């Protein structure tokens, strides 16, 4: 996945834009786990005038009834710019590694959600589906801050 993102970044023309950093709070809808995490968002390329490909690394501390753990992810959302709208929906694939009780498991992610463009701060809501060795559904809310 990371190699595909790097390849896409090298083949497509990139938009000059600042990267973003932020934080999120979430809940595992299937397990009731709580997620506290941090996010980075880097624009890779404009796929079309209204679609941008990003890379979104994130890390979260996951609090469970059982052993707590860490979730590390790299997602590749396609962000859709809607003319004269502050809402930017996104959808994309990704990969994650869940580390719980010393056991690391790789997950395939599919994410979707939306950003609310308010200037330098962009609140977001996201639904993440995580597959392989079980299916997990996480609902996340957070905010990204532009870094010049």
Give a quick precis of the structure.
With 148 residues, the chain is mainly β. Helices cover 7% and strands 67% of the residues. It is built from one helix and nine strands, in the order H-E-E-E-E-E-E-E-E-E.
How far apart are the first and last residues' alpha carbons, in Å?
27 Å
Strand residue content = over 45%
Structural class comes to mainly beta
Write down the Rg.
15 Å
* Largest β-sheet summary: 9 strands, antiparallel
Shape-level CATH architecture: Beta Barrel
Mean of residue pLDDT values: 90
The geometry reads as elongated
Low-confidence stretches: 1-16
Number of separate domains: 1
What's the helical proportion of residues?
Answer: under 10%
What's the total count of β strands?
9
Number of helices: 1
Q: What is the CATH topology assignment? A: Porin
- Which series of helices and strands comes N to C? HEEEEEEEEE
Q: CATH top level?
A: Mainly Beta
């Amino acid at each position: 996945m990371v190699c595909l993102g790097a390849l896409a970044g090298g083949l497509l023309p990139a938009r000059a834009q600042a990267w973003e950093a932020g934080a999120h709070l979430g809940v595992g809808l299937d397990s009731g786990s709580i997620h506290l995490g941090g996010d980075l968002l880097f624009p890779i390329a404009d796929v079309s005038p209204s679609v941008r490909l990003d890379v979104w690394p994130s890390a979260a501390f996951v609090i469970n009834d059982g052993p707590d753990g860490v979730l590390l992810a790299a997602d590749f959302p396609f962000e859709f710019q809607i003319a004269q709208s502050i809402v930017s929906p996104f959808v994309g694939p990704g990969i994650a590694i869940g580390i719980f009780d010393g056991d690391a498991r790789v997950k395939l992610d599919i994410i979707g959600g939306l950003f609310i463009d308010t200037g330098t701060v962009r609140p977001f809501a996201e639904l993440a589906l995580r597959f392989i060795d079980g299916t997990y559904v996480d609902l996340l809310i957070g905010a990204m801050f532009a870094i010049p």
